[in-house]
Amino acid sequence: MYKNKKYRFLTLFCLMIFLCFLPLSACKSSVQMAVEKQEAEKEQKQKESEKAYQEAVKAHQAKQSKTTRKMMKKSERKRKKAVGKTIRKNKGGSNCTS
Fold first, then answer.
1. Helix (H), strand (E), coil (C) string for the chain
2. 72 contacts 60 by C-beta, under 8 angstroms
3. Taking the complete model, does pTM exceed 0.85, yes or no?
4. What is the number of alpha carbons within 13 Å of residue 28 lying toward its C-beta?
5. Dihedral sign for Cα atoms in the order 54, 60, 66, 71
6. From first to last of its 98 residues, what are the pLDDT tens digits of the chain?
């Protein structure tokens, strides 16, 4: 009979400890949710600023003369090609040996 009460006490004690730590784990998830929300807002602001920048570039190009627009398009193509070459060059990985 004594052993049975001892195990009940131990079981209740473990259950109480578990119930005490349960809200603490929930608090961590709310903090994580707040961080994720901030990151999402930051990403949204970046997208909006990038969109506004692209619109400003297009408006600027529209105001330029025909020859200037052609030059701007050429430089844009060269820039994109250079980025593409860099990506392809770096895609193979490092060839270093230790």
1. CHHHHHHHHHHHHHHHHHHHHHHHHHHHHHHHHHHHHHHHHHHHHHHHHHHHHHHHHHHHHHHCCHHHHHHHHHHHHHHHHHHHHHHHHHHCCCCCCC
2. no
3. no
4. 4
5. negative
6. 446 777 788 888 888 888 877 776 666 667 788 888 999 999 999 999 999 999 998 898 888 888 888 888 898 888 888 877 777 766 665 555 54
